[in-house]
Amino acid sequence: MDLEIVAIGNELLLGFTIDTNGAELGQALGAIGVRVTRRTTVGDEPAAIRGAVAEALSRTGAVLTTGGLGPTRDDVSKKVVAELYGWPFRFHDEIWQRLVERFRRMGREPAPANRGQAEVPEGASVLNNRWGTAPGLWLEGSPGLVIMLPGVPHEMRNLLAHEVVPRLAERAGGAVVASKELRTSSIPESTLAGRLEAFEDALAPLSLAYLPGVHGVDLRLTAWNLPRSEAEGLLADAAQRLRSAIGDVVYGEDGADLAAVLVDTLREQRHTVSLGESCTGGLVGARITAVPGSSAVFQGGVVCYSNAAKTALLGVASGLIESTGAVSPEVALALARGARDRFGTTASIGVTGIAGPDGGSVEKPVGTVCFAWLLGEREEQSRYVFPGGREEVRERAAQFALHRLFRMAGAA
């Protein structure tokens, strides 16, 4: 079953609101075998809404709209779509009474404008909205199928799960669109593609997408319009084959967080970890402490931005800083050793670099970051030049720091 999404709202076009609904709809509908073939965004203009919905119906015969069901003058979606069907409106006293009761529970009375939310096109089915004031609508007739949901994310999400998915699943035919992701880090997209080139043709009928971001490259395998059991089997097999080729850079699947994976690994191996951070300014520690239960492994960290702080707080020799510069693998190692000794841990990370936009040189351009990792008796050092602006360099450096320690622990 093919379906198009039409998102309605000037706030979406102006960029003041991010359309998170589209992503949730695509995943939820694909999981029951409904393929989203196009997403369109239009403003709160009747002509634009009418055109977008009519064109979508002409292509697929099924459309899901979000937004434009509220009580204000710019909420015109319901009226426009009803005109496409030629259906007049009828006032639903049952809907109105639910609205009145909802407002009174909040100690208020509904405004006169709320009465419009109890008006429903004559041939439409009402999707009861127990999470807000605007009911969803299900219109099915000669133009095709139009499902109308409110744009408020939590209302849309609940109506989708409780009212829409069960109805669509019955007519979707049993085939699904299913995906599995492998999450990688510390490898450029082009290098990753080169290592997988020989595998891509053999992945059919699955597709493979490269999704680069600040934290790495996600690999998304997708099975299209297959029975669920067959799709899951193909995805599991393909993921295993990819892991055999690039397992050294893979840290998890399907939304895994690197810091959480690292915390679990260190806990299993009975390691504790500490940090000596300069240019990352505590980002590595923030990533770790965002993980519930991280106190089992994380002992503490020191953000020592200035050279004097590096010496005073973690014992980095001032002569070393003068001879190698504050941004050097040697200073990163001194930071890691100082953190380990200060907190008495079995693992530690040292990070120092030039995040920019100033401070670079020919020998050490902006984006240069030096690292050191200690795990038991093992020590590793690295120097890397990251692309991007100041925040990107810091985020990439924090991810790199976590990933290398994860790889060290995995190889232990």
Could you give a short description of this structure?
The protein is of the alpha/beta class and 412 residues long.
Descriptive notes:
This protein is an alpha/beta fold. The chain has three domains: 2-171, MoaB/Mog-like domain (Molybdenum Cofactor Biosythetic Enzyme, Chain A, 3-Layer(aba) Sandwich); 175-253, Alpha-Beta Plaits; 258-411, Alpha-Beta Complex (Maf protein). The protein is built from 14 helices and 17 strands. The chain has helices spanning 10-14, 20-30, 46-60, 77-85, 93-105, 153-171, 189-200, 228-246, 258-268, 283-289, 307-314, 318-324, 329-343, 390-411, and strands spanning 2-8, 35-42, 62-66, 89-91, 119-121, 125-127, 136-141, 144-149, 175-184, 207-213, 216-227, 250-253, 273-277, 298-303, 347-353, 368-375, 378-385. Strands 2-1-3-8-7-6 form a six-stranded mixed β-sheet, with helices on both faces. A hairpin with a 2-residue loop joins β7 (136-141) and β8. The radius of gyration is 27 Å and the shape is elongated.
Distinctive features:
single chain, 412 residues, alpha/beta, Molybdenum Cofactor Biosythetic Enzyme, Chain A, Alpha-Beta Plaits, Maf protein, 6-stranded mixed beta sheet, 26% strand
- What is the domain tally? 3
Low-confidence stretches: none
Fill in the CATH topology of the largest domain.
Molybdenum Cofactor Biosythetic Enzyme, Chain A
Query: Helix fraction?
Result: 40-55%
Major beta-sheet overview: 6 strands, mixed
Choose one word for the global shape: elongated
Do you know the CATH architecture of the largest domain?
3-Layer(aba) Sandwich
Q: Report the count of strand segments.
A: 17
Give the DSSP E fraction (strand runs of 2 or more residues).
Answer: 25-35%
Given this structure, which CATH class of the largest domain is correct?
Alpha Beta
Distance between the termini: 49 Å
Question: If strands are numbered along the chain, what order do they take across the biggest sheet?
Answer: 2-1-3-8-7-6
- Counting DSSP H or I runs of 4 or more residues, the number of helices is 14
Structural class: alpha/beta
Classified in CATH, the superfamily of the largest domain is MoaB/Mog-like domain
What is the radius of gyration computed over CA atoms, rounded to a whole number of angstroms? Answer: 27 Å
Mean pLDDT: 93
